[in-house]
Design brief:
alpha+beta, Heat Shock Protein 90, 5-stranded antiparallel β-sheet, 5-stranded mixed β-sheet, 16 helices, 16 strands, rod-shaped, HisK_dim/P_dom, His_kinase_dom, nucleotide-binding, ATP binding, membrane
Length: 572
Protein backbone atom coordinates (compact mmCIF):
# COMPACT_ATOMS: atom_id res chain seq x y z
CA UNK A 1 0.00 0.00 0.00
CA UNK A 2 2.92 2.33 0.54
CA UNK A 3 3.50 2.71 -3.19
CA UNK A 4 0.64 5.21 -3.41
CA UNK A 5 2.43 7.83 -1.38
CA UNK A 6 6.04 6.77 -1.53
CA UNK A 7 8.28 5.09 -4.09
CA UNK A 8 9.82 2.75 -1.59
CA UNK A 9 13.25 1.29 -1.14
CA UNK A 10 15.07 -0.34 -4.01
CA UNK A 11 14.13 -2.92 -6.61
CA UNK A 12 10.86 -4.60 -5.79
CA UNK A 13 8.74 -1.52 -5.26
CA UNK A 14 10.43 0.14 -8.21
CA UNK A 15 9.27 -2.78 -10.28
CA UNK A 16 5.71 -2.36 -9.06
CA UNK A 17 5.69 1.33 -9.92
CA UNK A 18 7.25 0.79 -13.34
CA UNK A 19 4.57 -1.77 -14.14
CA UNK A 20 1.74 0.81 -14.02
CA UNK A 21 1.51 0.80 -17.84
CA UNK A 22 2.46 -2.91 -18.20
CA UNK A 23 5.55 -2.02 -20.23
CA UNK A 24 8.00 -4.19 -18.31
CA UNK A 25 8.02 -7.85 -19.23
CA UNK A 26 10.88 -8.81 -16.93
CA UNK A 27 13.29 -7.23 -14.46
CA UNK A 28 16.67 -8.90 -13.92
CA UNK A 29 19.61 -8.20 -11.60
CA UNK A 30 23.26 -9.22 -11.80
CA UNK A 31 26.01 -8.90 -9.20
CA UNK A 32 28.88 -9.90 -11.54
CA UNK A 33 27.79 -8.32 -14.85
CA UNK A 34 27.49 -11.82 -16.36
CA UNK A 35 24.77 -13.88 -14.73
CA UNK A 36 21.35 -12.19 -14.50
CA UNK A 37 18.54 -13.54 -12.39
CA UNK A 38 14.88 -12.65 -12.40
CA UNK A 39 13.96 -10.17 -9.70
CA UNK A 40 10.48 -10.50 -8.21
CA UNK A 41 8.55 -8.74 -5.51
CA UNK A 42 9.59 -11.25 -2.86
CA UNK A 43 13.30 -10.65 -3.58
CA UNK A 44 13.20 -7.20 -2.04
CA UNK A 45 14.16 -8.26 1.50
CA UNK A 46 17.31 -9.93 0.14
CA UNK A 47 18.63 -6.58 -1.07
CA UNK A 48 17.27 -4.41 1.73
CA UNK A 49 20.43 -4.80 3.83
CA UNK A 50 22.74 -6.48 1.34
CA UNK A 51 25.91 -4.66 0.26
CA UNK A 52 27.42 -5.14 -3.17
CA UNK A 53 30.54 -3.98 -4.98
CA UNK A 54 28.82 -3.79 -8.33
CA UNK A 55 25.48 -4.62 -9.91
CA UNK A 56 23.63 -4.42 -13.20
CA UNK A 57 19.97 -4.17 -14.10
CA UNK A 58 18.33 -5.52 -17.26
CA UNK A 59 14.80 -4.40 -18.11
CA UNK A 60 12.89 -6.15 -20.91
CA UNK A 61 10.12 -4.03 -22.47
CA UNK A 62 6.89 -4.99 -24.18
CA UNK A 63 7.52 -3.10 -27.42
CA UNK A 64 3.99 -3.74 -28.69
CA UNK A 65 2.76 -1.11 -26.22
CA UNK A 66 5.11 1.50 -27.65
CA UNK A 67 3.59 1.69 -31.11
CA UNK A 68 2.62 5.29 -31.80
CA UNK A 69 3.11 6.05 -28.10
CA UNK A 70 5.78 7.65 -25.97
CA UNK A 71 6.65 7.03 -22.35
CA UNK A 72 9.54 8.17 -20.19
CA UNK A 73 11.71 6.12 -17.88
CA UNK A 74 12.96 7.93 -14.76
CA UNK A 75 15.81 6.43 -12.79
CA UNK A 76 16.90 7.49 -9.33
CA UNK A 77 20.22 5.91 -8.47
CA UNK A 78 23.83 6.61 -7.57
CA UNK A 79 24.28 8.01 -11.06
CA UNK A 80 27.88 9.08 -10.38
CA UNK A 81 28.64 5.33 -10.13
CA UNK A 82 26.94 4.54 -13.43
CA UNK A 83 29.41 2.83 -15.77
CA UNK A 84 27.26 2.20 -18.80
CA UNK A 85 23.72 2.21 -20.17
CA UNK A 86 22.58 1.20 -23.62
CA UNK A 87 20.05 4.05 -23.88
CA UNK A 88 20.57 7.79 -23.95
CA UNK A 89 19.40 9.88 -21.02
CA UNK A 90 19.41 13.37 -19.56
CA UNK A 91 19.98 14.43 -15.96
CA UNK A 92 17.36 16.48 -14.15
CA UNK A 93 17.58 17.09 -10.38
CA UNK A 94 19.48 13.86 -9.69
CA UNK A 95 17.07 11.93 -11.92
CA UNK A 96 18.05 10.17 -15.15
CA UNK A 97 15.34 10.46 -17.80
CA UNK A 98 15.11 8.34 -20.95
CA UNK A 99 12.54 8.47 -23.70
CA UNK A 100 10.79 5.17 -24.52
CA UNK A 101 9.36 4.72 -28.03
CA UNK A 102 9.44 2.33 -30.94
CA UNK A 103 13.19 2.90 -31.39
CA UNK A 104 14.08 1.95 -27.82
CA UNK A 105 15.96 -1.36 -27.45
CA UNK A 106 13.95 -4.37 -26.29
CA UNK A 107 16.26 -4.68 -23.30
CA UNK A 108 17.54 -1.71 -21.32
CA UNK A 109 20.67 -2.16 -19.19
CA UNK A 110 22.37 -0.16 -16.48
CA UNK A 111 25.78 -1.07 -14.98
CA UNK A 112 27.01 0.34 -11.66
CA UNK A 113 30.26 -0.03 -9.71
CA UNK A 114 31.14 1.18 -6.18
CA UNK A 115 34.53 1.91 -4.65
CA UNK A 116 33.38 0.14 -1.49
CA UNK A 117 30.55 -2.34 -1.04
CA UNK A 118 27.27 -0.62 -0.22
CA UNK A 119 23.54 -1.06 -0.54
CA UNK A 120 22.44 -1.00 -4.17
CA UNK A 121 20.62 2.20 -5.04
CA UNK A 122 18.34 1.93 -8.04
CA UNK A 123 14.69 2.92 -8.46
CA UNK A 124 12.73 3.34 -11.67
CA UNK A 125 9.38 4.71 -12.66
CA UNK A 126 7.68 4.93 -16.03
CA UNK A 127 5.59 8.03 -16.63
CA UNK A 128 3.31 9.04 -19.46
CA UNK A 129 4.13 11.61 -22.13
CA UNK A 130 1.45 13.89 -20.69
CA UNK A 131 2.96 13.73 -17.21
CA UNK A 132 6.48 14.32 -18.50
CA UNK A 133 5.58 17.36 -20.61
CA UNK A 134 2.84 18.99 -18.50
CA UNK A 135 3.55 18.14 -14.85
CA UNK A 136 7.15 17.05 -14.45
CA UNK A 137 8.65 20.45 -15.50
CA UNK A 138 6.35 22.26 -13.06
CA UNK A 139 6.46 19.89 -10.12
CA UNK A 140 8.17 22.53 -7.97
CA UNK A 141 5.22 24.87 -8.51
CA UNK A 142 2.79 22.01 -7.77
CA UNK A 143 4.56 21.22 -4.51
CA UNK A 144 4.79 24.89 -3.52
CA UNK A 145 1.09 25.57 -4.14
CA UNK A 146 0.10 22.40 -2.30
CA UNK A 147 2.27 23.23 0.71
CA UNK A 148 1.05 26.83 0.75
CA UNK A 149 -2.62 25.82 0.77
CA UNK A 150 -2.13 23.19 3.47
CA UNK A 151 -0.01 25.47 5.68
CA UNK A 152 -2.52 28.32 5.36
CA UNK A 153 -5.32 25.93 6.34
CA UNK A 154 -3.28 24.84 9.37
CA UNK A 155 -2.47 28.39 10.44
CA UNK A 156 -5.95 29.78 9.80
CA UNK A 157 -7.78 27.19 11.85
CA UNK A 158 -5.14 27.06 14.56
CA UNK A 159 -5.81 30.77 15.13
CA UNK A 160 -9.58 30.22 14.96
CA UNK A 161 -9.30 27.56 17.65
CA UNK A 162 -7.91 30.07 20.14
CA UNK A 163 -10.86 32.43 19.52
CA UNK A 164 -13.57 29.75 19.57
CA UNK A 165 -12.04 26.99 21.74
CA UNK A 166 -13.80 24.43 19.52
CA UNK A 167 -11.71 21.25 19.58
CA UNK A 168 -12.48 20.24 15.98
CA UNK A 169 -10.68 23.37 14.73
CA UNK A 170 -7.61 22.26 16.68
CA UNK A 171 -7.83 18.67 15.40
CA UNK A 172 -8.18 19.88 11.81
CA UNK A 173 -5.21 22.23 12.05
CA UNK A 174 -2.96 19.58 13.63
CA UNK A 175 -4.07 17.08 10.97
CA UNK A 176 -2.98 19.57 8.29
CA UNK A 177 0.48 20.06 9.76
CA UNK A 178 1.08 16.28 9.85
CA UNK A 179 -0.17 15.95 6.26
CA UNK A 180 2.25 18.73 5.29
CA UNK A 181 5.13 17.01 7.10
CA UNK A 182 4.29 13.71 5.38
CA UNK A 183 4.23 15.30 1.92
CA UNK A 184 7.55 17.05 2.49
CA UNK A 185 9.01 13.72 3.59
CA UNK A 186 7.65 11.99 0.49
CA UNK A 187 9.18 14.57 -1.82
CA UNK A 188 12.55 14.68 -0.06
CA UNK A 189 13.00 10.92 -0.16
CA UNK A 190 11.64 10.65 -3.70
CA UNK A 191 15.00 12.07 -4.79
CA UNK A 192 16.88 9.36 -2.92
CA UNK A 193 17.66 5.88 -4.29
CA UNK A 194 16.16 4.49 -1.07
CA UNK A 195 15.10 5.92 2.28
CA UNK A 196 16.86 4.92 5.45
CA UNK A 197 14.95 2.88 8.01
CA UNK A 198 14.70 5.85 10.37
CA UNK A 199 13.47 8.10 7.56
CA UNK A 200 10.79 5.55 6.66
CA UNK A 201 9.76 5.34 10.32
CA UNK A 202 9.46 9.13 10.66
CA UNK A 203 7.28 9.47 7.56
CA UNK A 204 5.09 6.55 8.69
CA UNK A 205 4.60 8.20 12.09
CA UNK A 206 3.58 11.44 10.37
CA UNK A 207 1.05 9.48 8.31
CA UNK A 208 -0.37 7.75 11.37
CA UNK A 209 -0.66 11.04 13.25
CA UNK A 210 -2.50 12.65 10.34
CA UNK A 211 -4.96 9.76 10.31
CA UNK A 212 -5.44 9.94 14.09
CA UNK A 213 -6.38 13.62 13.94
CA UNK A 214 -8.56 12.98 10.88
CA UNK A 215 -10.58 10.53 12.97
CA UNK A 216 -10.64 12.87 15.98
CA UNK A 217 -11.90 15.63 13.71
CA UNK A 218 -14.63 13.35 12.34
CA UNK A 219 -15.67 12.38 15.88
CA UNK A 220 -16.09 15.99 16.95
CA UNK A 221 -17.64 17.45 13.82
CA UNK A 222 -20.19 14.60 13.56
CA UNK A 223 -20.74 14.56 17.34
CA UNK A 224 -20.61 10.76 17.25
CA UNK A 225 -20.32 10.39 21.03
CA UNK A 226 -23.79 11.89 21.42
CA UNK A 227 -25.54 11.08 18.14
CA UNK A 228 -23.86 7.82 16.93
CA UNK A 229 -22.42 5.97 19.95
CA UNK A 230 -21.67 2.71 18.12
CA UNK A 231 -19.87 4.58 15.35
CA UNK A 232 -18.00 6.48 18.04
CA UNK A 233 -16.69 3.18 19.46
CA UNK A 234 -15.46 2.19 15.98
CA UNK A 235 -13.67 5.51 15.49
CA UNK A 236 -12.08 5.19 18.93
CA UNK A 237 -10.93 1.68 18.00
CA UNK A 238 -9.30 2.93 14.79
CA UNK A 239 -7.60 5.73 16.72
CA UNK A 240 -6.37 3.16 19.23
CA UNK A 241 -4.84 0.82 16.65
CA UNK A 242 -3.13 3.78 14.97
CA UNK A 243 -1.55 4.69 18.31
CA UNK A 244 -0.46 1.08 18.79
CA UNK A 245 0.97 1.08 15.26
CA UNK A 246 3.08 4.14 16.11
CA UNK A 247 4.64 2.29 19.02
CA UNK A 248 5.32 -0.69 16.76
CA UNK A 249 7.03 1.59 14.22
CA UNK A 250 9.71 2.40 16.80
CA UNK A 251 10.76 -1.26 16.65
CA UNK A 252 9.94 -2.34 13.09
CA UNK A 253 10.81 1.03 11.44
CA UNK A 254 7.71 0.86 9.24
CA UNK A 255 3.92 0.78 9.62
CA UNK A 256 2.50 -2.71 9.87
CA UNK A 257 -1.10 -1.47 9.99
CA UNK A 258 -1.02 0.18 6.56
CA UNK A 259 0.83 -2.71 4.98
CA UNK A 260 -2.44 -4.63 5.38
CA UNK A 261 -5.17 -1.97 5.60
CA UNK A 262 -5.80 0.34 2.63
CA UNK A 263 -5.48 4.07 3.29
CA UNK A 264 -8.91 4.85 1.87
CA UNK A 265 -10.59 3.00 4.76
CA UNK A 266 -9.68 5.92 7.05
CA UNK A 267 -11.75 8.26 4.85
CA UNK A 268 -14.43 5.75 3.87
CA UNK A 269 -15.69 5.42 7.45
CA UNK A 270 -16.25 9.18 8.00
CA UNK A 271 -17.88 9.28 4.54
CA UNK A 272 -20.41 6.62 5.55
CA UNK A 273 -21.04 8.30 8.91
CA UNK A 274 -21.44 11.64 7.14
CA UNK A 275 -24.08 10.15 4.82
CA UNK A 276 -25.91 8.73 7.87
CA UNK A 277 -25.73 12.15 9.49
CA UNK A 278 -27.22 13.79 6.38
CA UNK A 279 -30.03 11.19 6.33
CA UNK A 280 -30.70 12.16 9.94
CA UNK A 281 -31.26 15.72 8.64
CA UNK A 282 -27.96 17.17 9.83
CA UNK A 283 -27.31 19.41 6.83
CA UNK A 284 -24.18 20.91 8.42
CA UNK A 285 -22.22 17.75 7.51
CA UNK A 286 -22.92 17.84 3.76
CA UNK A 287 -19.69 19.57 2.72
CA UNK A 288 -17.61 17.45 5.11
CA UNK A 289 -19.12 14.32 3.58
CA UNK A 290 -18.25 15.63 0.11
CA UNK A 291 -14.67 16.20 1.26
CA UNK A 292 -14.32 12.72 2.75
CA UNK A 293 -15.93 11.17 -0.34
CA UNK A 294 -13.46 13.07 -2.54
CA UNK A 295 -10.51 11.72 -0.56
CA UNK A 296 -11.91 8.17 -0.47
CA UNK A 297 -12.45 8.01 -4.24
CA UNK A 298 -9.07 9.45 -5.22
CA UNK A 299 -7.06 7.43 -2.71
CA UNK A 300 -8.88 4.28 -3.83
CA UNK A 301 -8.17 5.05 -7.49
CA UNK A 302 -4.52 5.74 -6.65
CA UNK A 303 -4.12 2.51 -4.68
CA UNK A 304 -5.70 0.56 -7.52
CA UNK A 305 -3.35 2.38 -9.95
CA UNK A 306 -6.32 3.68 -11.95
CA UNK A 307 -4.98 7.23 -12.15
CA UNK A 308 -2.40 7.67 -14.95
CA UNK A 309 -0.21 9.92 -12.81
CA UNK A 310 2.56 9.26 -10.35
CA UNK A 311 1.31 8.70 -6.85
CA UNK A 312 3.36 11.59 -5.50
CA UNK A 313 1.69 14.03 -7.95
CA UNK A 314 -1.74 12.61 -7.21
CA UNK A 315 -1.43 13.14 -3.46
CA UNK A 316 -0.07 16.67 -3.99
CA UNK A 317 -3.20 17.48 -5.98
CA UNK A 318 -5.69 15.66 -3.75
CA UNK A 319 -4.41 16.85 -0.35
CA UNK A 320 -4.72 20.62 -1.01
CA UNK A 321 -8.08 20.07 -2.72
CA UNK A 322 -9.28 18.35 0.44
CA UNK A 323 -7.97 21.31 2.45
CA UNK A 324 -9.92 23.74 0.27
CA UNK A 325 -13.15 21.73 0.48
CA UNK A 326 -12.87 21.41 4.25
CA UNK A 327 -11.99 25.09 4.53
CA UNK A 328 -15.34 25.94 2.91
CA UNK A 329 -17.10 23.56 5.27
CA UNK A 330 -15.33 24.91 8.33
CA UNK A 331 -16.08 28.45 7.17
CA UNK A 332 -19.80 27.61 7.22
CA UNK A 333 -19.33 26.06 10.65
CA UNK A 334 -17.55 29.19 11.84
CA UNK A 335 -20.38 31.34 10.51
CA UNK A 336 -22.88 29.17 12.41
CA UNK A 337 -20.81 29.63 15.57
CA UNK A 338 -20.76 33.39 15.05
CA UNK A 339 -24.52 33.45 14.47
CA UNK A 340 -25.07 31.38 17.58
CA UNK A 341 -22.82 33.71 19.54
CA UNK A 342 -24.72 36.73 18.20
CA UNK A 343 -28.01 35.18 19.25
CA UNK A 344 -26.66 34.51 22.72
CA UNK A 345 -25.35 38.06 22.89
CA UNK A 346 -28.76 39.41 21.89
CA UNK A 347 -30.31 37.32 24.65
CA UNK A 348 -27.75 38.66 27.11
CA UNK A 349 -28.46 42.21 26.00
CA UNK A 350 -32.18 41.60 26.48
CA UNK A 351 -31.56 40.20 29.95
CA UNK A 352 -29.27 43.11 30.71
CA UNK A 353 -31.99 45.53 29.65
CA UNK A 354 -34.51 43.77 31.85
CA UNK A 355 -32.08 43.97 34.77
CA UNK A 356 -31.49 47.65 34.01
CA UNK A 357 -35.23 48.28 33.88
CA UNK A 358 -35.59 46.62 37.26
CA UNK A 359 -32.82 48.82 38.60
CA UNK A 360 -34.49 51.84 36.98
CA UNK A 361 -37.85 51.07 38.62
CA UNK A 362 -36.09 50.61 41.95
CA UNK A 363 -34.32 53.96 41.55
CA UNK A 364 -37.53 55.72 40.47
CA UNK A 365 -39.26 54.30 43.51
CA UNK A 366 -36.58 55.81 45.74
CA UNK A 367 -36.64 59.09 43.82
CA UNK A 368 -40.43 59.34 44.14
CA UNK A 369 -40.70 58.27 47.76
CA UNK A 370 -39.92 61.74 49.18
CA UNK A 371 -42.14 63.77 46.79
CA UNK A 372 -45.00 61.30 47.29
CA UNK A 373 -44.66 61.74 51.03
CA UNK A 374 -44.63 65.49 50.52
CA UNK A 375 -47.80 65.29 48.40
CA UNK A 376 -49.41 63.24 51.12
CA UNK A 377 -48.58 65.97 53.66
CA UNK A 378 -50.01 68.63 51.31
CA UNK A 379 -53.28 66.71 51.04
CA UNK A 380 -53.35 66.28 54.80
CA UNK A 381 -52.78 70.02 55.34
CA UNK A 382 -55.56 70.87 52.89
CA UNK A 383 -57.91 68.48 54.66
CA UNK A 384 -57.08 69.90 58.09
CA UNK A 385 -57.49 73.46 56.80
CA UNK A 386 -60.88 72.52 55.39
CA UNK A 387 -61.99 71.06 58.73
CA UNK A 388 -60.92 74.24 60.55
CA UNK A 389 -62.52 76.52 57.93
CA UNK A 390 -59.08 78.04 57.17
CA UNK A 391 -58.97 76.97 53.49
CA UNK A 392 -58.78 80.40 51.84
CA UNK A 393 -57.72 81.19 48.29
CA UNK A 394 -54.22 82.30 49.19
CA UNK A 395 -53.52 79.14 51.22
CA UNK A 396 -54.99 76.94 48.46
CA UNK A 397 -52.80 78.56 45.77
CA UNK A 398 -49.72 78.09 47.97
CA UNK A 399 -50.39 74.37 48.38
CA UNK A 400 -51.25 73.93 44.70
CA UNK A 401 -47.91 75.53 43.72
CA UNK A 402 -46.11 73.37 46.24
CA UNK A 403 -47.86 70.31 44.84
CA UNK A 404 -47.02 71.28 41.26
CA UNK A 405 -43.34 71.61 42.20
CA UNK A 406 -43.35 68.04 43.51
CA UNK A 407 -45.15 66.76 40.41
CA UNK A 408 -42.67 68.58 38.18
CA UNK A 409 -39.80 66.97 40.09
CA UNK A 410 -41.39 63.54 39.55
CA UNK A 411 -41.97 64.27 35.87
CA UNK A 412 -38.36 65.35 35.43
CA UNK A 413 -37.28 62.15 37.11
CA UNK A 414 -39.24 60.09 34.57
CA UNK A 415 -37.80 62.12 31.69
CA UNK A 416 -34.27 61.81 33.07
CA UNK A 417 -34.57 58.04 33.42
CA UNK A 418 -36.25 57.55 30.03
CA UNK A 419 -33.51 59.61 28.32
CA UNK A 420 -30.86 57.59 30.12
CA UNK A 421 -32.22 54.22 29.00
CA UNK A 422 -33.25 55.38 25.54
CA UNK A 423 -31.03 53.66 22.89
CA UNK A 424 -28.98 56.10 20.83
CA UNK A 425 -29.06 55.44 17.10
CA UNK A 426 -26.40 57.99 16.23
CA UNK A 427 -23.07 58.89 17.74
CA UNK A 428 -22.46 62.35 19.15
CA UNK A 429 -19.73 64.33 20.89
CA UNK A 430 -19.85 64.32 24.69
CA UNK A 431 -17.58 64.85 27.65
CA UNK A 432 -16.68 61.82 29.75
CA UNK A 433 -17.54 63.78 32.89
CA UNK A 434 -21.07 64.44 31.59
CA UNK A 435 -21.75 60.72 31.07
CA UNK A 436 -20.31 59.86 34.50
CA UNK A 437 -22.37 62.55 36.28
CA UNK A 438 -25.51 61.26 34.57
CA UNK A 439 -24.93 57.80 36.06
CA UNK A 440 -24.15 59.26 39.51
CA UNK A 441 -27.38 61.30 39.45
CA UNK A 442 -29.39 58.18 38.71
CA UNK A 443 -27.82 56.33 41.65
CA UNK A 444 -27.56 59.22 44.14
CA UNK A 445 -30.83 58.63 45.99
CA UNK A 446 -30.35 54.90 46.50
CA UNK A 447 -26.73 55.45 47.57
CA UNK A 448 -27.90 58.02 50.10
CA UNK A 449 -30.42 55.54 51.44
CA UNK A 450 -27.66 53.07 52.29
CA UNK A 451 -25.22 55.78 53.46
CA UNK A 452 -22.73 54.94 50.70
CA UNK A 453 -20.42 57.86 50.04
CA UNK A 454 -19.69 58.49 46.36
CA UNK A 455 -17.12 61.01 45.14
CA UNK A 456 -16.07 62.20 41.69
CA UNK A 457 -12.63 63.61 40.94
CA UNK A 458 -11.96 65.08 37.48
CA UNK A 459 -8.24 65.42 36.79
CA UNK A 460 -8.37 65.56 32.99
CA UNK A 461 -11.62 65.46 31.05
CA UNK A 462 -11.93 64.41 27.41
CA UNK A 463 -14.50 64.91 24.67
CA UNK A 464 -15.16 61.83 22.55
CA UNK A 465 -17.43 60.89 19.65
CA UNK A 466 -19.62 57.93 20.55
CA UNK A 467 -22.76 56.90 22.45
CA UNK A 468 -23.06 58.84 25.71
CA UNK A 469 -25.90 56.77 27.16
CA UNK A 470 -23.98 53.53 26.65
CA UNK A 471 -20.95 54.95 28.45
CA UNK A 472 -23.24 56.09 31.29
CA UNK A 473 -24.78 52.61 31.34
CA UNK A 474 -21.34 51.05 31.87
CA UNK A 475 -20.55 53.47 34.71
CA UNK A 476 -23.98 52.79 36.21
CA UNK A 477 -23.28 49.03 36.09
CA UNK A 478 -19.95 49.53 37.88
CA UNK A 479 -21.53 51.75 40.56
CA UNK A 480 -24.39 49.25 41.03
CA UNK A 481 -21.90 46.39 41.25
CA UNK A 482 -19.85 48.29 43.86
CA UNK A 483 -23.01 49.15 45.84
CA UNK A 484 -24.15 45.51 45.89
CA UNK A 485 -20.80 44.16 47.10
CA UNK A 486 -20.50 46.88 49.76
CA UNK A 487 -23.91 45.93 51.13
CA UNK A 488 -23.29 42.19 50.80
CA UNK A 489 -20.08 42.41 52.84
CA UNK A 490 -21.58 44.90 55.28
CA UNK A 491 -18.64 47.28 54.91
CA UNK A 492 -18.40 50.02 57.56
CA UNK A 493 -18.13 53.53 56.02
CA UNK A 494 -18.74 52.26 52.48
CA UNK A 495 -17.23 54.41 49.76
CA UNK A 496 -17.16 54.57 45.96
CA UNK A 497 -14.51 56.77 44.37
CA UNK A 498 -14.64 57.74 40.68
CA UNK A 499 -11.69 59.42 38.95
CA UNK A 500 -11.56 60.79 35.41
CA UNK A 501 -8.11 61.17 33.87
CA UNK A 502 -6.22 60.73 30.60
CA UNK A 503 -3.27 58.54 29.64
CA UNK A 504 -1.53 58.50 26.25
CA UNK A 505 -4.41 60.36 24.56
CA UNK A 506 -6.95 57.93 26.00
CA UNK A 507 -9.59 58.63 28.62
CA UNK A 508 -9.37 56.52 31.78
CA UNK A 509 -12.30 56.43 34.19
CA UNK A 510 -11.59 54.58 37.43
CA UNK A 511 -14.38 53.26 39.68
CA UNK A 512 -13.05 52.00 43.02
CA UNK A 513 -14.70 50.76 46.20
CA UNK A 514 -13.51 49.76 49.67
CA UNK A 515 -15.17 46.32 49.69
CA UNK A 516 -11.84 44.46 50.14
CA UNK A 517 -11.47 43.47 46.49
CA UNK A 518 -12.24 40.49 44.23
CA UNK A 519 -11.05 37.02 45.23
CA UNK A 520 -7.88 36.21 43.31
CA UNK A 521 -9.39 32.95 42.06
CA UNK A 522 -12.29 34.87 40.52
CA UNK A 523 -10.60 38.00 39.18
CA UNK A 524 -10.09 36.46 35.72
CA UNK A 525 -13.74 35.35 35.57
CA UNK A 526 -15.60 38.55 36.48
CA UNK A 527 -16.18 39.49 32.83
CA UNK A 528 -17.43 36.04 31.80
CA UNK A 529 -21.17 35.76 31.06
CA UNK A 530 -23.29 34.32 33.88
CA UNK A 531 -20.43 34.41 36.38
CA UNK A 532 -21.51 36.04 39.63
CA UNK A 533 -20.77 35.89 43.35
CA UNK A 534 -24.03 37.60 44.28
CA UNK A 535 -26.90 35.58 45.67
CA UNK A 536 -29.41 37.05 43.19
CA UNK A 537 -26.98 38.24 40.50
CA UNK A 538 -27.47 37.45 36.80
CA UNK A 539 -23.77 37.54 35.92
CA UNK A 540 -24.30 39.61 32.78
CA UNK A 541 -23.71 43.20 33.97
CA UNK A 542 -19.91 43.20 33.79
CA UNK A 543 -19.92 41.01 30.68
CA UNK A 544 -22.18 43.44 28.84
CA UNK A 545 -20.18 46.41 30.12
CA UNK A 546 -16.96 44.96 28.69
CA UNK A 547 -18.75 44.08 25.44
CA UNK A 548 -20.03 47.65 25.07
CA UNK A 549 -16.61 49.20 25.73
CA UNK A 550 -14.83 46.73 23.40
CA UNK A 551 -17.32 46.89 20.54
CA UNK A 552 -18.72 50.43 20.55
CA UNK A 553 -15.78 52.38 21.99
CA UNK A 554 -12.86 50.23 20.75
CA UNK A 555 -11.55 50.42 24.30
CA UNK A 556 -11.10 48.09 27.22
CA UNK A 557 -12.53 47.43 30.65
CA UNK A 558 -10.12 46.03 33.24
CA UNK A 559 -10.16 45.21 36.94
CA UNK A 560 -7.47 45.08 39.60
CA UNK A 561 -7.33 44.83 43.38
CA UNK A 562 -5.98 47.53 45.68
CA UNK A 563 -5.44 47.57 49.44
CA UNK A 564 -8.96 48.88 50.03
CA UNK A 565 -10.94 47.06 47.35
CA UNK A 566 -11.50 46.55 43.63
CA UNK A 567 -10.84 49.16 40.91
CA UNK A 568 -12.38 49.02 37.44
CA UNK A 569 -10.69 50.96 34.62
CA UNK A 570 -12.60 52.15 31.56
CA UNK A 571 -10.10 53.01 28.81
CA UNK A 572 -11.46 54.58 25.61
Amino acid sequence: MKKIFFILFVFSFSFVFADKFNLIKSFQVSEDFEIFKEFGKNDFLEYKNKKVKKFAVKIELDKSLLKDKEFYLTVISDYENLLFSNISYIKNNHILISKLDENTPNEITFYYSYDKPKRAGFRIKIISEFEYKNIFPFEGILYGVAYGIIFCAFLYYFIIYFSTRKSYFLYYSIMQIFVLASLIGFVYFSFKPYPTNNAQAIVDIFENMSFIFTLLFAKEILKTKKKMPYANYLLCFLIGINIVDIFIIFFTKYSILYEYMPFYIIFLLPTILGIISIINKNENTIIYTIGWSFMTIFIYLAEMELIPLSGIYTIHIVAPMESLIFSFALAFTLRAIVNEKNEKEKLLIHKSKLASMGEMINNIAHQWRQPLTHLSYINMNLQMASYDNQLNKEYLNEKIEESNNQLEFMSNTIESFSDFYKPQKQKDYFYISSAVKQAINIMSVILDKYDIEISLKIRNDMKIYSYENEYSQVVLNLITNAKDILLQREIINPKIKITIDTNLNRSVTTVCDNAKGVDNKNIQKVFEPYFTTKEKGSGIGLYMSKTIINSHFKGDLKVTNTKEGACFFIEV
